[in-house]
Amino acid sequence: MERSGNDYNVVWLEEVDSTNNYLKEWFRREPLGEGTTVVADYQTRGRGQRGNGWSSEKGENLLFSLLLYPKGIKANEQFILSRIASLAVKWVLDRFTGDICIKWPNDIYWGEKKIAGMLIENDLLRGEVTRSVVGIGINVNQRRFPAELPNPVSLRQITGVEHDRARLLEAFLQEFFSLYGGLRERLWEGNEKLAELGVGQAGSRDRVRGRHDNGGELDVGRVGSREEQWEVIACAYMASLYRKDGYYWYEDHNGRFQAAIQEVMPSGHLVLKTLNRGEVRRYAFKEVVYVSS
Ligand code: BTN
Fold this sequence. Notes:
binds biotin, 7 helices, BirA Bifunctional Protein, domain 2, SH3 type barrels, alpha+beta
């Protein structure tokens, strides 16, 4: 998909209950093109993960939902959309500050604080994703957050200056479609971030994957098939992951344990290797929590 600067269909609203809800109701009423984006200055019932809310002061942050009609993404591979959206948010924020990483599955962190979150809602038909609403909240200019939020931070708090939300949105859409569109084209061409990671150069796979390399050869100089492009996105995601190296504390229904991240599967499952026994454990979202050190 070729898109230049500002040809996205973006609708900016003052107030909605939730941009995800608004977009879903809208496409039930009339056909909407891929890339249709609903942005709101304020959400009266912003929705977060795990049935939580998403709170944001009026006019301060970037709250939006993007409509996609993916082709050929199987239900058990739908995590590719999370990977792409997370990388796009990270790459936009990287323009302003260091230390941005992706906390599995798709929270965006600055150090130990959360700067953005996403709620991706997919429609499935015959085992494939036919439609996706990618809802994203980025803390941009908010100076103070309610005390009950565990660890929020905004771009303004990090950089000390205000940021233009419309420009951030445009940057996000460009980053997002450079990857998403790349699933149909040669992914790395013209993608600066992947070039920085060395994608497209000899030996780049090792540099990107580091210790997460599970073996097998991929000559990224000849990456062309969809599978290979997905692998490149997975590598870039892995390279950006919070706690990607070393052992940390986690907690599951059996209690606390130390483990290292081994991989994140195409289904989105997190694979951890325990320190004590070297046991490999696989978790779906909500089955394991990160324990702060
Ligand atoms: C989370 O981390 O809990 C996910 C937060 C997702 C919030 C965004 S804001 C725009 C879109 N509309 C919603 O109601 N939720 C998402």
